Amino acid sequence: MAGLIVLGVAGVIVLVLLFGSLFTVEQQTAAIVERFGKFRRVARPGLNVKIPLIERVAGRVNLRVQQLDVSVETKTLDNVFVHTIVAVQYMVIPDRVYDAFYRLDQPTVQITAYVFDTVRARVPKMELDDVFERKDEIAIAVKNELSGEMNEFGFQIVQALVTDIDPDKKVKESMNEINAAKRLREAAQERGEADKILKVKAAEAEAESKALQGQGIANQRRAIIDGLRDSVDQFQQSIAGVTPEAIMQLVLMTQHYDTVKEIGAASRANTIFVPYSPAGMSDFYSQIRDALIAANAATTQADVDRPDRSGM
């Protein structure tokens, strides 16, 4: 009976020791194995064996790419305080797990210190607008500084990015007001130019319209004069002894009565008063004749003064 108990206890001890000697390591992870407190080896992903009671897993090191966001407050050359967020992507070099585990206790604290030092050395030399425009230079400077220092401890700096630049709230409001005023000024200038173009085009169109209208009136008057001249010539050829003045009086009287007839036939005709005495008709003829002569002279002078457009 005692022998069975001893065998059972021994079996339990063996099982405990057996299972205690086996351990697993996850993918993209390395385990540090120590023997009596001294580094022994680095266990890779998979099933591993250690000597029970003699060796132990002191820790595990993450081999994935990790990111650390560092917020730095500093002042620019034009005395504006800004909060700059720098994202640092880093990883442990697989072949230097020992250095990463034993030589550096808190890597994030070290990285943060170097980021603070680099940003506060660069940004105070730039004005606020330059900080936005040259943020890539800041990121490259941070990466170069960290790569040289952290590589010694088994860390690789994959990338450094300036993800945000946040000035003081009052400064942002002032910048927004400046930009808004600039946009309004540009919009006003554009509206002014548009109005100017519309007015110029309208003036050009009006001038061209008046020129064409004047040309049409001149052609109309010229046609009237030519028609009257032809009528006088035909009348003299048909009836001998009639003077041109008598013929013109007859033609003008005929056109006058035709005009009065058209006015009377219109639906909205107004009342007009014209003299119908013989003396009045003579005076009326003199006025029309003088007007036609003046119009003919003005038309002839306009034709002389008008530039020749055929060569344009």
From TrEMBL:
InterPro entries for the chain: Band7/mec-2_domain, Band_7, Band_7/SPFH_dom_sf
Pfam family, one: Band_7
Signal peptide extent: none
SMART domains, per the entry: PHB
Record-annotated Band domain positions: 20-179
Protein name: SPFH domain-containing protein
